[in-house]
């Protein structure tokens, strides 16, 4: 359906959040590759919230939905910086994962955030032991 939509030049662009979840405003997590498989031009946007007046991030392990809603509704303001970045297209020999990572890197750099190689599922699941071991091996190679 996305391919059909972007093929029709009379239709407006689609707004997609490829992380699939929200994070604490310090990092950009792994993008879901589906948005980058359909072709077309990607118009990256970096969004970073300024928590000085009110924090838009919801830590669902710490606050209930009611508490979060109350905090947002009673905050002084929700302020964010938005940067519209140059359009990007998938290169000829590039697969969807590499294209997603390239777009993610541009967004993270502009927003002053770090890139994370994992997705939002780690917020609610235990980290796989093999992933921990892989990171430990990488760290040992650095040291």
From TrEMBL:
User: Protein name, please?
Assistant: GPAT3 acyltransferase
- Its gene name is Gpat3_1
Provide one Gene Ontology biological process annotation: triglyceride biosynthetic process
Arranged from A to Z, the UniProt key words for this protein are:
Acyltransferase, Endoplasmic reticulum, Lipid biosynthesis, Lipid metabolism, Membrane, Phospholipid biosynthesis, Phospholipid metabolism, Transferase, Transmembrane, Transmembrane helix
From what organism does this protein derive? Chauna torquata (Southern screamer)
One of the entry's Gene Ontology molecular-function terms is:
glycerol-3-phosphate O-acyltransferase activity
Family classification: Belongs to the 1-acyl-sn-glycerol-3-phosphate acyltransferase family.
Q: Where in the cell is it found?
A: Endoplasmic reticulum membrane
The Phospholipid/glycerol acyltransferase domain extends over: 7-48
- Which Pfam families does the entry link to? Acyltransferase
Task: Give the matching CDD domains.
Answer: LPLAT_LPCAT1-like
Q: In which pathway does it act?
A: Glycerolipid metabolism; triacylglycerol biosynthesis; Lipid metabolism; Phospholipid metabolism; CDP-diacylglycerol biosynthesis; CDP-diacylglycerol from sn-glycerol 3-phosphate: step 1/3
Its taxonomic path starts at: Eukaryota, Metazoa, Chordata, Craniata, Vertebrata
- Grouped into one coarse class, the protein's main location is endoplasmic reticulum
Q: Which GO terms describe its cellular component?
A: endoplasmic reticulum membrane
């Amino acid at each position: 359906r996305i391919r059909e939509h972007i093929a029709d030049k009379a239709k407006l662009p689609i707004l997609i959040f490829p992380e699939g979840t929200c994070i604490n405003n310090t990092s950009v997590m792994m993008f879901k590759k589906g948005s980058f498989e359909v072709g077309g031009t990607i118009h990256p946007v970096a969004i970073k919230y300024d928590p000085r007046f009110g924090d838009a991030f919801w830590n669902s392990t710490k606050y209930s939905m009611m508490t979060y809603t109350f905090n947002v509704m009673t905050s002084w303001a929700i302020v964010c910086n938005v940067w519209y970045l140059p359009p990007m297209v998938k290169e000829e020999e590039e697969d969807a994962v590499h294209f997603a990572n390239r777009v993610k890197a541009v967004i993270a750099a502009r927003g002053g955030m770090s890139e994370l190689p994992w997705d939002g599922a780690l917020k609610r699941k235990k980290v796989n032991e093999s992933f921990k071991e892989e990171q430990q091996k990488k760290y040992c190679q650095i040291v």
